[in-house]
């Protein structure tokens, strides 16, 4: 065990003597086929983790190219068409192949059954199928990329995507369509599992908040994604047959596309952020050794976000000529949906009060999340406010806003979760000091990248611009410099986490002294998770119960 | 991939005996739990299907509202007789499916196979009639695209008996909008037919398994869940038929 | 709302000169900026509050100082506080934002109208006096200007950051935006909705000029024919005057003075005749049959460009009596040779041709 982990990890009753368990889900079966045909939710979670990591770095490479091009005001690195393909691929890959599946399909897949005391998700084969669908969709996206790319922007706006581009729109659309079903099946599996597979005594209000937030996200996946699917089908039909549903010259309404598309794509934002919020609840509670302040409020705020999230889609269309009255209604609802997020932030902050706080890497990422998400959320209020939206929408302000939520929020939460549960997933600790460094580096890099973009946005620099007026250069250079730092911050975990697979200290069952059911079993877990069905007699985050249990164990051992 | 649930129905196994059958999956505590999870999953899946069709229904309602005369005229071109026959056929198919579920529950293997076969036959009959309708649309140049022809709406054919046009002539700009109706007609009924074809594929597989006696020992979840799916497909048609064929129909003269 | 003008000028000028803030060049801009500063203050306060809580608790309750945590369920009072206060602030923002929205999107009645046509990848501006510009727009300061905009192909978005106004330019329907420039100068015009390859080249320059300079500019840049005059030629060339000739026995309704009136349609609805209605009635006549007339007008969809439609709309808008219509009937003979599918009429090159002039 490395010396650093010794210093920073507190309360390690079993770590010095810990050994990797002889039998676990990783070595239960051998060979590639045992992975490719597995029904084990943990293995599928790992398969997802590997796939989305690949696509994260692919999407990140495109982001790097975009920032490189924007170093100078002139369009000098690549041609405009190429640049347009860059940001389209960046958006498509990051949203559909990374953010949407990021936490639910990896950490959620791995942990939700364990957290509620089940042996697996309700439908293991469908779980595997959804990974293959993900791969299928990813394959189509890659084919579109190899064939020469696609330049619709991730929003597939009609009539641009249907009649004015001759790139591989259909291929990319097929990819999105297929990935959509992967997400539907993941959501469906989670909902059924959470409803039907909870262990005895695991009532709804004893569930960890991570499960609640994934439940809320699953509702959005199941109800929202099919609308995206049919919209994509209509776009493809319009493009191939020219039938005119979205074509104004044939009597169609291009705004109908906007309505249908955002009916999914706004809830999709919550699909991306809600599971991340769940991670933060777990991490904050564990490292302050204290139950989450106002458990019920946090749980219900997730559900409230999911419900309100379905009725705010038209706030993407305030300047498109929706009627004044619907603009009013959608703006008001947008303000309401901001409230549950505010509640969560304050509840997390007050969870720290009177705790016993330590600052391991997941906690640092969680702090980064709270700060960045607060900025991202509050700048969302700018955009929900009708008059302000007119000036800010379609500029870099909006780019900065959603990166604060998606990268500053979701990605930080994802990294917090990966570090937090890494010992559980692999049985080994990550190296603590270098990972703290990476958390700090990404925090600084992130702010350097995206803070200037808020200013650029208010100055009026439009998004998706290949060239820009020279007076915006200083801020763009700052942003590109920040992106370099950010890139380093994201590459570091890749390296040291891979390193830790072999050389990391043995973690033991419960290195963090956390209360979740997942921490009461061996790391890495058995294929069937539990030797016998756990009977839950305590609430989530019950540290007194944990203390009592640990004390008892010591007695028995002694 | 739409109905991947239905292609993996054997996961939702259930049986009434105390001896664990091979269909009981290890990660479920009880067979009761397994059965409930299966049908709950199916219901959720049907919910996603509703949202899927919902997008098209929304588009239909919007354009029907905008271009009502075109939608009325185009709707009158649909073959109500065949549509009505198809409705009856589909209800019959659904009826036999329901009987099939009953037969599986009372463990009558022969009856189950017979009912599933009848369900399949009526399913194919529906598709056959549908194909005939599509062919009629092709002959009348009602398929959206290059060959689409609005002449019939602009200059309706003269009725031999009355010497009057059989419907009110439409101006060309409105007549163009009939193409939107027919596109939505093909998209909606086509998507419905696509669900039928998938369902028929699964039916063959279920018949084969039923014939081997797999569903005769109390394990009926695949039949039940497929039944839910098949009834859902029926119900979609029960919305499509009035919305596309009947809603604009003039009273018969 | 009253802000000390000196402080405001100081703040905004200082920010602007450090290239961190756009110029305030329209009457709307200070209003937008006021809301912006309010929201900015909200963000900073919120962030400082959350930061202080986290930092403070982290210091006070770190493991070394607080070895054992005290378990707390929650506090209804506290939670109600941070539900109600943010809600109240957000509602203030909502009302404020809504008021601003109506201010930006409801033009004053005395606004002068300029037409904008967006296409991949240029902006065409058409002044009623017949001045045509590409990727440029000249406007007078101190006078409200309304833009009636339409796209010929895909979605575009017309944005003037220094005026704080922006509106989507949509194919197939007019959208409008208005502003009143306050400072002479040139300002960026951006297309902010992604519209394909040269999206970032779909930019232009807004030139705000003193009223005197503007008058001078309009005189120098005129194409010789106003939009209404172009419209009149089209009206004759496309044969509109055959039915809409203003006589009592005409097959089409009388168009003189129709603009701004309320029409009773055959389908029973009553509509206000505005630019959008006129354009739609030309393209989709059967949905706009005036009560008492037969649905015989053919569609002109695909036969007339957006510029042509603007000319016609402008002609009908300015039609007070049927005198001009009668004139077209008289001159119709001489226009027989005019093509039935008219091209936008080429403007004559004015003397001192401006850089932004159309050269078609």
From TrEMBL, chain A:
Q: Report whether Transmembrane shows up as a keyword of the record.
A: yes
Q: Which reaction does it catalyse?
A: 4 Fe(II)-[cytochrome c] + O2 + 8 H(+)(in) = 4 Fe(III)-[cytochrome c] + 2 H2O + 4 H(+)(out)
The Cytochrome oxidase subunit I profile domain sits at 29-537
Annotated membrane topology is: Multi-pass membrane protein
Mind listing the UniProt keywords for this protein, alphabetically? Cell membrane, Copper, Electron transport, Heme, Iron, Membrane, Metal-binding, Respiratory chain, Translocase, Transmembrane, Transmembrane helix, Transport
Listed transmembrane segments: 46-66, 86-111, 131-150, 170-194, 215-237, 257-280, 292-313, 325-343, 364-384, 396-422, 434-455, 475-499
Q: What is its EC number?
A: 7.1.1.9
Gene Ontology BP annotations: electron transport coupled proton transport; oxidative phosphorylation; respiratory electron transport chain
The UniProt entry's sequence similarity note says: Belongs to the heme-copper respiratory oxidase family.
Name of the molecule in the record: Cytochrome c oxidase subunit 1
| Source organism (scientific name) | Granulicella aggregans
TrEMBL record, chain B:
Where is it located? Cell membrane; Membrane
Indicate yes or no for the key word Hydrolase. no
UniProt keywords, alphabetically: Membrane, Transmembrane, Transmembrane helix
A GO cellular component annotated for this chain's UniProt record is: plasma membrane
The domain of life for this entry's organism is: Bacteria
Q: Where does the protein principally reside?
A: membrane
Biological process terms in GO annotation: aerobic electron transport chain
**What are the recorded GO MF terms, alphabetically?**
cytochrome-c oxidase activity
UniProt domain Heme-copper oxidase subunit III family profile: residue ranges:
40-249
| Claim: Transmembrane is one of the keywords in the record | yes
A Pfam family matched in the record: COX3
Indicate the family of this protein.
Answer: Belongs to the cytochrome c oxidase subunit 3 family.
Would you tell me the protein name for this molecule? Cytochrome c oxidase subunit 3
Species of origin reads Granulicella aggregans
């Amino acid at each position: 065990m490395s010396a650093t982990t010794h210093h920073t990890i507190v309360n390690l009753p079993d770590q010095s003597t810990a050994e990797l368990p002889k039998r676990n889900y990783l070595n239960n079966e051998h060979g590639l086929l045992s992975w490719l045909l597995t029904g084990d939710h943990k293995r599928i979670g790992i398969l997802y983790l590997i796939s989305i990591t690949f696509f994260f770095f692919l999407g990140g490479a495109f982001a790097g190219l975009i920032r490189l091009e924007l170093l100078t005001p002139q369009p000098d690195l690549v041609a405009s068409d190429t640049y347009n393909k860059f940001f389209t691929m960046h958006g498509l890959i990051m949203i559909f192949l990374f953010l949407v599946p990021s936490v639910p399909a990896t950490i959620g897949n791995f942990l939700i059954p364990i957290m509620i005391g089940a042996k697996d998700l309700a439908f293991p084969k469908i779980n595997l199928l959804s990974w293959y669908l993900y791969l299928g969709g990813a394959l189509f996206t890659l084919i579109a990329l190899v064939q020469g790319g696609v330049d619709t922007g991730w929003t597939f706006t009609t009539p641009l995507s249907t009649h004015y581009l001759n790139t591989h729109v259909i291929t990319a659309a097929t990819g999105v369509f297929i990935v959509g079903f992967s997400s539907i099946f993941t959501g469906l599996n989670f909902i059924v599992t959470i409803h039907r597979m909870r262990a005895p005594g695991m009532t709804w209000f004893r569930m960890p908040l991570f499960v609640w937030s994934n439940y809320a996200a699953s509702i959005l996946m199941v109800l929202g994604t099919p609308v995206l699917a049919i919209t994509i089908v209509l776009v493809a039909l319009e493009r191939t047959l020219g039938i005119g549903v979205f074509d104004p010259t044939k009597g169609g309404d291009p705004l109908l596309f906007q309505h249908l598309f955002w009916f999914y794509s706004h809830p999709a934002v919550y699909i991306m952020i809600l599971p991340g919020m769940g991670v933060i609840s777990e991490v904050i509670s564990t490292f302050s050794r204290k139950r989450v302040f106002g458990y019920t409020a946090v749980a219900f705020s997730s559900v409230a976000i999911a419900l309100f999230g379905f009725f705010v889609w038209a706030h993407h269309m305030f300047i498109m000529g929706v009627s004044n009255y619907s603009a009013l209604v959608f703006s008001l609802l947008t303000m309401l949906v901001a409230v549950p997020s505010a509640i969560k932030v304050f509840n997390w902050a007050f969870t720290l009060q009177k705790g016993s706080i330590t600052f391991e890497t997941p906690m640092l990422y969680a702090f980064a999340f709270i700060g960045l998400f607060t900025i991202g959320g509050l700048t969302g209020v700018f955009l929900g406010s009708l008059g302000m939206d007119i000036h800010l929408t379609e500029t870099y302000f909006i780019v900065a806003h959603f990166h604060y939520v998606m990268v500053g929020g979701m990605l930080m939460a994802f990294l917090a979760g990966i570090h937090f549960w890494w010992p559980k997933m692999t049985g080994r600790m990550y190296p603590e000091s270098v990972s703290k460094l990476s958390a700090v580096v990404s925090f600084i890099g992130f702010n350097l990248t995206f803070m200037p973009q808020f200013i650029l946005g208010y100055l009026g620099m439009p998004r998706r611009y290949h060239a820009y007026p020279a007076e915006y250069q200083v801020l763009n250079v700052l942003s590109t410099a920040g992106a370099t730092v950010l890139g380093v911050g994201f590459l570091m975990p890749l390296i040291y986490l891979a390193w830790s697979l072999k050389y990391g200290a043995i973690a033991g069952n419960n290195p963090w002294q956390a209360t979740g059911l997942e921490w009461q079993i061996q790391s890495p877990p058995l294929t069937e998770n539990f030797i016998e069905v756990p009977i839950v007699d305590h609430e989530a985050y019950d540290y007194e119960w944990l203390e009592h249990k640990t004390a008892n164990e010591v007695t028995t051992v002694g | 991939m739409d109905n991947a649930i239905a292609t993996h129905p054997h996961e939702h196994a259930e049986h009434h005996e105390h001896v664990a059958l091979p269909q009981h999956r290890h990660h479920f505590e009880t067979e009761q739990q397994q059965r409930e999870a299966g049908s709950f999953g199916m219901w959720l899946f049907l919910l996603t299907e509703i949202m899927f069709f919902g997008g098209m229904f929304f588009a239909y309602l919007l354009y029907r509202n905008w271009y009502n005369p075109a939608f009325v005229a185009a709707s009158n071109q649909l073959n109500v007789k065949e549509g009505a026959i198809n409705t009856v056929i589909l209800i019959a198919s659904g009826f036999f499916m329901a009987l099939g579920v009953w037969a599986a529950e009372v463990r009558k293997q022969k009856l189950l196979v017979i009912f599933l076969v009848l369900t399949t036959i009526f399913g194919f009959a529906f598709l056959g009639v549908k194909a005939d309708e599509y062919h009629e649309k092709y002959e009348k140049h009602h398929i959206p695209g290059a060959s689409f022809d609005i002449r019939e709406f602009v200059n309706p054919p003269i009725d031999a008996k009355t010497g009057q046009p059989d419907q009110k002539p439409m101006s060309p700009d409105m007549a163009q909008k009939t193409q939107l109706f027919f596109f939505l007609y093909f998209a909606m009924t086509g998507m419905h037919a696509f669900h039928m074809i998938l369902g028929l594929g699964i039916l063959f597989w279920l018949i084969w398994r039923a014939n081997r006696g797999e569903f005769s020992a109390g394990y009926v979840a695949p039949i039940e869940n497929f039944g839910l799916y098949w009834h859902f497909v029926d119900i979609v048609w029960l919305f499509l038929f009035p919305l596309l064929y009947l809603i604009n129909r003039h009273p018969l003269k | 709302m009253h802000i000390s003008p000196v402080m405001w000028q100081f703040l905004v000028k200082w920010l602007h000169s450090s290239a961190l803030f756009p110029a305030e060049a329209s009457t709307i801009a200070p209003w937008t900026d006021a809301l912006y500063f309010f929201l900015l203050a909200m963000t900073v306060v919120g962030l400082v509050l959350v930061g202080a809580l986290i930092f403070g608790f982290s210091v006070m309750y770190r493991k070394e100082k607080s070895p054992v945590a005290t378990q707390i369920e929650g506090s209804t009072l506290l939670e109600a506080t941070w539900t109600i206060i943010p809600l109240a602030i957000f509602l203030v923002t909502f009302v404020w934002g809504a008021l601003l929205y109506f201010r930006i999107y409801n033009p004053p009645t005395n606004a002068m109208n300029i037409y904008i046509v967006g296409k991949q990848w240029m902006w065409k501006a058409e002044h009623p006096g017949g001045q045509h510009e590409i990727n440029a727009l000249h406007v007078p300061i101190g006078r409200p200007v309304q833009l009636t905009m339409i796209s010929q192909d895909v979605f575009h978005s017309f944005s003037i950051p220094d005026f704080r106004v922006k509106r989507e330019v949509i194919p197939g329907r007019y959208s409008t935006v208005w502003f009143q420039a306050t400072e002479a100068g040139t300002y960026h015009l951006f297309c902010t909705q992604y519209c394909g390859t040269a999206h970032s080249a779909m930019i232009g320059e807004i030139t705000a000029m003193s009223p005197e300079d503007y008058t001078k500019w309009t005189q120098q840049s005129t194409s010789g024919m106003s939009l209404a005059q172009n419209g009149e030629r089209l009206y004759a060339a496309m044969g509109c005057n055959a039915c809409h000739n203003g006589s009592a026995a005409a097959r089409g309704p009388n168009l003189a003075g129709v603009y701004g009136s309320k029409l009773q349609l055959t389908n029973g609805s009553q509509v206000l005749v505005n630019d959008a209605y006129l354009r739609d009635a030309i393209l989709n006549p059967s949905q706009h049959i005036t009560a008492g007339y037969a649905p015989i007008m053919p569609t002109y969809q695909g036969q007339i460009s957006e510029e042509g439609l603007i000319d016609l709309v402008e002609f009908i808008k300015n039609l007070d009596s049927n005198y001009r219509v009668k004139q077209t009937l008289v001159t119709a003979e001489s226009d027989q040779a005019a093509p039935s599918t008219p091209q936008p009429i080429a403007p004559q090159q004015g003397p001192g041709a401006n850089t932004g002039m159309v050269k078609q």
